[in-house]
Amino acid sequence: MITFDGVTKRYADGTVAVDNLSLEAASGTITVFVGPSGCGKTTSLRMINRMIDATQGRILLDGQDVKQIEPSTLRRGIGYVIQQAGLFPHRRIVDNIATVPYLLGWDRKKARARAMELLERVGLDAKLARRYPFQLSGGQQQRVGVARALAADPPVLLMDEPFSAVDPIVRMSLQEELLRLQSELHKTIVFVTHDIDEAVKLGDTVAVFRVGGHLAQFSDPATLLSEPADDFVREFLGRDRGIRRLSFIPAAGVELSPPPPELVLEDGKPVGWKSDDGLQPYGSFNPGTDSLRAALDASLLSANGIAVAVDGDGKVLGVLAREALDGAISGGPGAARG
Amino acid sequence: MDEPLVRWDWIARNWDNGSPLAIRTLLENHVVMAFVPVVLGLVLALPLGLACARWRLLYQPVTGVMNIVYAMPSLALFSILLSVTGLTQTTVIIPLTLFSLAVLIPAVVDGMTSVPDHVRQSATAMGFRPLRRLVLVELPIATPVVLAGVRVATVASISLVSVGALIGQGGLGALFTDGWQRQFYTPIVVGIALIVLLAVFADLLLIALQRLLTPWSRARRSA
Fold first, then answer.
1. CATH 3.40.50.300: does it fit domain A2-243?
2. Would the pTM of this model clear 0.90, i.e. be above it?
3. B219/A132 touch (CB, cutoff 8 Å), yes or no
4. Cystine design at A247: which of A293, B145, B156, B185 (Cβ 3.0–4.6 Å)?
5. What is the pLDDT of residue A334?
6. pLDDT tens digits for A123-143?
7. Residue in B closest to A50 by C-alpha
8. Domain boundaries of chain A, sorted by first residue
């Protein structure tokens, strides 16, 4: 667990980057610091591994004040991923990944074996190991950056806008990859971004910062979307807050009706809605794994507004009528507010 | 008399005839007087350049002084040094070392500036202490830029040595004074050809060294 206890960073010229910040980033979860530029989110992150030292207050890493740990020793125990990956251009990928193990004095063979294991773990081909960073795409470099941060298996990972410099499609796959890795590794991750969608997607907990280094709100994403603390947070969250909030409500509780005869099936799988003009398109969702947002989407895609519920194999479980969907949406947690 | 531009028999007779003006001896002296200043210059430019890169306020005054030195005619420097070091190779080596410094200090500073900030930061964040970061991360990344400076300094030094002929220590430059005094062109042509060959050879060696030391930078260019 990482604890900020009344942390303030004031520069010599009097600028306050972070103002009396207190929060806890729980072990094994992703805590996202999000906010506009100049809000102190990166400064806060860098105070954890002492790239920047706090002026006042304490930062505790599992109860120990980071100021009592020698900086380079502290940093070798904390993974760090930076925006442009920050790979060493003069070292091959395998040696880039093995950087911290080398610093910790592992022997070369063991460090390289570990690097190869991580290369695979972040979804990269083993034959990239002998290449130099510039021979990789931005997305690949960023994966190497993540592999390098994980090399010595640190319990804590700091990520400073790691996916900001890549295009949206690559960013999305990197985000999925991070969530997949996290479900296996359970690291304590602090993730900085200026992108609220990224924050809501990745964070178990989201800390919204406002300019001047104030914490505006600290809550889980669903609460953030349904109950913004004030106008600043509401505005920062932007439009579509209501629909985005549905992503956090599982569709498991919806009331399904038996499939009507108009739904044409083949081997138990839906193929379309029967009509005078032939088959009409349908939308489907899986109540076992999807959110209410997916159910709403399925309803909007269906010609008649009725969403089709299917199981993992694509077989029909039932259908969700508009009224039942409306009920589920308005009955969801916090739905009437915000 | 129809005098040819080059008399090959003269070259054969004077290549290695044991006299202090034998072409081979002059060539050897030339090599020593050209390379010692570059090596000394690099040894001095590294700490000075690193200091300038670290404390930027130093950079302007240091380059200012270096540019003044660079602007000074070698002859003036020779006459100042003559009273101290006499008619020796040292009198040539000292000014050439200063000239090399004027090229190499900015090269070291530029090299350090060429290290991307995010690379430096990620090195720090992974737990490199400053000295180790300098040796294992910053200097290797600065190497291509520094070596480019070394190439310029080396070629300049090889050509400048000949000026030392004015105090009898010019390496191959002695062939020029000899030729002019006797209105005999062969030594002049031989001197020019050897100096150019030496410069090209040294440059090729440095390019090879650069490829050996920075395979990642060669690959970058061909990509």
1. yes
2. no
3. yes
4. A293
5. 40
6. 999 999 999 999 999 999 999
7. B125
8. 2-243, 251-331
| Contact between A338 and A227 (Cβ < 8 Å) | yes
| Nearest residue of B to residue A71, measured between CA atoms | B127
Give the residue on B whose Cα is nearest the Cα of A130. Answer: B216
Distance, in angstroms, between B65 CA and closest chain A CA? Answer: 33
Distance CA A87, CA A93 (A): 8
> Helix, strand, coil % (nearest 5) of chain B?
85, 0, 15
**At A338, is the pLDDT very low, low, confident or very high (cuts 50, 70, 90)?**
very low
Of all residues in chain A, the percent with pLDDT exceeding 70 is 98
| Residue-range domains of chain B with CATH | 8-222 (1.10.3720.10)
Q: In what order do the strands lie in the sheet with A284-285?
A: A284-285, A307-310, A316-320
**Do the Cβ atoms of A132 and B129 come within 8 Å?**
no
**pLDDT tens digits, B29-73:** 999 999 999 999 999 999 999 999 999 899 999 989 888 888 888
Q: How far apart are CA A316 and CA B20, in angstroms?
A: 102
- One of 1.20.1070, 2.60.40, 3.10.580, 3.30.300 is the CATH number of A251-331, namely 3.10.580
pLDDT in tens, A280-297: 889 999 998 898 989 999
CB contact under 8 A, A51 and B124: yes
State how far the Cα of A303 lies from the Cα of A273, in Å rounded to an integer: 8
Residues of A at the B interface, defined by Cβ within 8 angstroms: 49, 51, 71-76, 80, 82-91, 99-100, 103, 132, 134-135, 145, 148, 158
